Amino acid sequence: MDKTREGKSKHFRWSRPMERMFLEILAYEASEGNKPPATFKPSSFVQVAQVINEKFETECEPDHVDNHLRTIKNNWATIQKLRVKSGFQWDHNLKMITVVRKEAHPTHEKYLNKKIEMYDELALVAGKDMATGYDGNDNTTKGIEDHSRFNGKRSHASNKDDRFAMLSKQIGEVANAIKKTSQNQLDVAELYKKVMEVEGFDEATLAYAFDYLVDKERVAKVFIVKSVKLKKL
């Protein structure tokens, strides 16, 4: 990390409410297409700093936001490693990493056997451009559709993002049929099977889509009904 920038921003203390605001704004920015493959646009950092200053009457600068994003990305990387590590289990419904002997992992204790707050926002902000359709008001369908319409310039390396945007768009269309679904309990095993049948996406991307659908049960029910269409992606 640039030592000058680190020194400049190390005196800024992020409270929990500030971090929630940080994640909410950047998650929305990502869903609007303002997150190129590498990181966010400078204007996004400026916006976060301005809102933090206005709401909390502090002196947050864009560099503080940029540097805090590095911390968030490191935390996200740790979460993803723990999810697949031997001896750990991932609870899709609760967004929780479970382990039998929590005390045996003191370094990672804050991530274990407790719900990971704002998991969807973290995925948008720190993940590799995998959209969950966040729009700041839990209007999931609108956020997904907006993100899928983003037509910014993409390099060859971002083809995976284009494919995921296609999947997101289809999920958005699926949501239009929500009112027609039954009130039966969601069959998670059946949902997993249907998601994994979708062609054109790697296993990691489909696993992320599965996590999203489990969290949004009504959309998941419609997904099962419309899965034939989704297989044509």
Automatic annotation (TrEMBL):
It comes from the Eukaryota. Pfam families: Myb_DNA-bind_3. InterPro entries: Myb/SANT-like_dom. Residues 13-98 form the Myb/SANT-like domain. This is Myb/SANT-like domain-containing protein. It comes from Eucalyptus globulus.
